[in-house]
Amino acid sequence: NTFEMRGQAGIDDTAHGGIGYNAAAVFNAPLGKNAAVRVDGFYRSDHGYVDSIGNNPIFNLLTGAELGRTLVAKNFNDRKSFGGRASVLFDPTNNLSIRLTAFAQNLNSGGGNFFDINPATLQSLYGGFVQSVYQPEPTHIKYRVYYGTADWDIGFASLFSSTSYSTFKEDLETDDTFALGAVVNLIADLGPAAGLFGLPVLAQTPITRPLGLQLFQTTGTKKFTQELRLASPNNDTLEWLIGAFYTHESSAIDPQNLLATEFGTDTVATDVAPIALIFLRSTYQEYAGFGNVTWHITPRADLTVGGRLAHNNQHAHEVLTSPLIGDQLADDKSSESVFTYSVAPRYELSKHASVYARVASGFRPGGPNVIPVGSPPGIPTTYKADRLTNWELGLKAEAPDAHLWSIELAAYHIDWKDIQLFEIVNQIGINANGGKAKVNGLEFSGALRPVPGLTLSSNGAYTNAKLKDDTPPLTGGFRGDPLPWVPRWSGALHADYEFPLNPRMGGFVGGSLAYIGKRNAAFNERNPDGSLVRIPGYTEVDLRAGVNVGRFTVEAFARNLFDKRGLTDAFGFNGASFPNGAAAAAAIRPRTVGLTLTANIAP
User: Fold this and answer.
1) d(Cα 296, Cα 511) in Å, to the nearest integer?
2) What is the pLDDT of residues 406-448, one digit of tens each?
3) Which DSSP state fits 176?
4) Which residues does 250 contact at the CB level (< 8 Å), separation at least 6?
């Protein structure tokens, strides 16, 4: 029930790229005695830093003539996002609270963050952030969420309801010129004569001009959820909660069209037949009931036990039309029930320290495989949920003066079974269930405040995650292989110091050092000797400093201060996925320095 208005604006400069900027604002105001409204919005423009340099020509397979080269485009992976949220809180009575919220966000990108690397050295193939892309690859995303909650104290318990409806839409384009462009140009160049060679006819007259190949895809999801929870009041002996959950999701890839284009553009070549037209719709419906009970055995010991039974029904329908691979129709369903549970005892060593244990299970839903009508027998039409069981022991402690220090320690073991994998059965790609994996780990976090204004904190993790069974050959994993992209060691150190400059002005400085250890790429990304591709670890340093003057704060920052090129993804090590035998990688954002101004306009 307070009036608040706050705004923020910033500017930054990214190495190898250019200037970006951002702005945000929030407004909060009471509406009488029992209601309030809160509105916020933001806009952000991140400058790109990946280039395409007009190299790697491709040639007509019939004439040998050059069809074209990669785009000449600088900093094309720019990203712009904007959105906002509006929320109304209404308390019609002392024991009923209602909140209604709407959220919207749009994201537009000019291209991906990947760049070409040497598969042997993992270094940039062309000395910088260069991607071999022949045609633009823009992405446009719209996300909308509408939800309402009601919290009603009915005396013997509280009843909580959460209702939401969300929509997601993504329009993206993918350049497939390198993979299929030469073949499409060959067939189009033959015109009607292609049929004489047993090839599909793509053009009624020979097409001699260069053609590119572009995938145009629109993906959408509409999702409704409803959850009800009935919870007992706080009690010194026994507390309970029961609830029900329902969701219905309708998703579609409509369309997914692979089309010939005028080379170097995303302008469709209308005199060339579509290479492939794909339409896919699916639904996911889940019902679940859940509950938990907490028993306070003594003033220092308690035990929480919970369970959840869920059932889902799924349906997928696909239509594919293609002169290259033929037409396909698929319609499949699946149905599955899964029970999960948790058991969590806790014991207070003192008012400021406790130990706990927890055993809990989780799952990822299975689903139907989209099998074309008329496929050979023996292809599984569904795949099961894969499941995790987690065992954890932990300690939480803090100083009697909680502001002095705090620490959390945890050790855990995870069993993962029926791992969902992709494999080929009778020349049909399907989702399937593989074997098992295990994860052993340690986690630490702590904070220390040795003097007024100074906060030192850190966190770290040790993770040993490996396969217990071989995977299907297409996935490429063997027993004992580390799970992809899981570092054995990771951690971070943070330091922040606030200090007075004069009675009206304060200053602050801070820094962070984050470390991500070595990781392995995907199981099927291997070196010529058969060993897994090993991704180097990296360290990132961030700095910040600023002043507070009344209602205003000015902060200067530097992220990735030493401009490290820490890899976060890498793939395509077979030598044929990208031009010039390259693989592809993505990295943390290059060094970015900037300035942010925040104004607390009211109160």
Assistant:
1) 42
2) 999 999 999 999 999 888 887 788 888 989 999 999 999 999 9
3) -
4) 221, 222, 223, 281, 282, 283
Q: What is the pLDDT of residues 147-184, one digit of tens each?
A: 999 999 999 999 999 999 999 999 999 999 999 999 99
- Asked whether residue 264 is assigned to any structural domain, the reply reads yes
Q: Which residue's entry shows tokens 């399907």?
A: 430
In whole angstroms, give the CA distance from residue 430 to residue 315.
Answer: 15
Question: Measuring CA to CA, which residue among 593, 597, 497 is closest to residue 548?
Answer: 597
Q: Are strands 519-520 and 353-364 parallel, antiparallel or unpaired?
A: unpaired
DSSP structure string for 44-69:
EEEPP--BEES---EE-TTT--EEE-
According to DSSP, the residues that pair with 320 across neighbouring strands are: 278, 328
Domain residues for the domain of 289 are: 147-326
- Domain for residue 289, yes or no? yes
How many structural domains compose the chain? Answer: 1
Token couple for 77: 């992976």
Q: Name the residue among 596, 599, 598, 573 with its Cα closest to residue 584.
A: 573
194 occurs within a structural domain: yes
Tracing tokens 């993962």 back to the chain, one arrives at: 416
pLDDT per residue as tens digits for the range 486-519:
999 999 999 999 999 998 999 999 999 999 999 9
Indicate whether 13 belongs to any domain. Answer: no
Cβ neighbors of 234 (< 8 A, separation 6 or more) are none
Cα–Cα separations (whole angstroms), residue 399 to 341, 374, 454, 455: 33, 69, 16, 14
For the four alpha carbons of 430, 433, 439 and 444, in that order, the dihedral sign comes to positive
CA distance 420 to 368: 12
What whole-number distance in Å separates Cα of residue 485 and Cα of residue 482? 9
Buried b (16+ CB within 10 A) or exposed e, 119-128: beebebbbee
What letter represents residue 332's amino acid? D
pLDDT in tens, 516-560: 999 999 999 998 888 999 999 999 999 999 999 999 999 999 999
The DSSP 8-state label assigned to residue 471 in this structure reads P
Give which of 268, 366, 233 is closest to 310, Cα–Cα.
366
In degrees rounded to 5, what are phi and psi of residue 490? -155, 155
Residue type, 570: A
Cβ–Cβ < 8 Å for 116, 130 = yes
